């Protein structure tokens, strides 16, 4: 991995002395985690787990898990995936050696995991020993017109609880195993995506805790953990004082929050946003720099309401804005504890966090 050296490293040291905000990275592979560490990341703020399932030796199991209605076949696919996940998480925990690691439970647009062409459908049918026409109908029933606003995040965790149970079991086992290897306690942070209501989080959390307790009993060891949620839908920010009853931490997902607040698809925005910025209708791309009166106001509200219920509650941000200097100044001003950004933006974020803290201090003195 790259290293910071010489004057640059000295400068970064000064920045670290000045800043209050912690800087974490979004990373889901060991290589990304190593890069993040070498740039000074103080933890992983978001490990997205959906990408982990696309490897050729895994995707077949994922498709079988989603497509079958046979409990024994589903259990077999889940067992295989759990082994992979446990190794994934041991790798991340070992690399981070006791620094905080937030693992987000599966948040796929479901359609990405469905068998698409005839060949994929035939493969699944052969593996499951099921009729291809029956599977085609099942696949079509699961297809959606707007997957990004559909069967995603905790919604999937609620309709197919065995998927989250598999991941939580893998996380708990990995934390126990990695703690033995690194010789330090590991407190995994488990994050639930796309929560809109307290009830969703309550149910998802209760299921996760049941799984963790089972692992603790099986292994005969102690395990501390935090269960928190993404705040990435306007309703979650608006009702954060209720959601906080069920959450040990909040992480603001400003990518989805921007998409849902503006009613503007994050995947299609490039078609006209540059023109909007050029004409001055928007000052900057809201998917890059926080819109303080819009999404920013929702984040501020989420912080205030959440901490009304839980004073001092741990809060961070893991959307793209976590690596944008102007947005970082805003996150400093509203009292977030950390920003999490892509590994290569970590040095920029450390500098921006220092600058924001110094400016705040100057204002206080003046
Ligand atoms: C977000 O929505 O801001 C986020 C960090 O999650 P993702 O980009 O994976 O949807
Ligand atoms: Mg999101």
TrEMBL record:
Top-level taxon of the source organism: Bacteria
Leader sequence residues: none
Binding site for Mg(2+): 232, 256
Binding residue positions for substrate: 48, 104, 232, 253-256
Residue numbers annotated as active site: 318 (proton donor)
Any coiled-coil regions, as ranges: none
Domain PEP-utilising enzyme C-terminal: 6-356
Functional note: Catalyzes the reversible phosphorylation of pyruvate and phosphate.
Family (UniProt): Belongs to the PEP-utilizing enzyme family.
Name listed for the protein in its UniProt record: Pyruvate, phosphate dikinase
Species in which this protein is naturally found: Kozakia baliensis
Residues represented out of the complete protein: 524 to 889 of 889
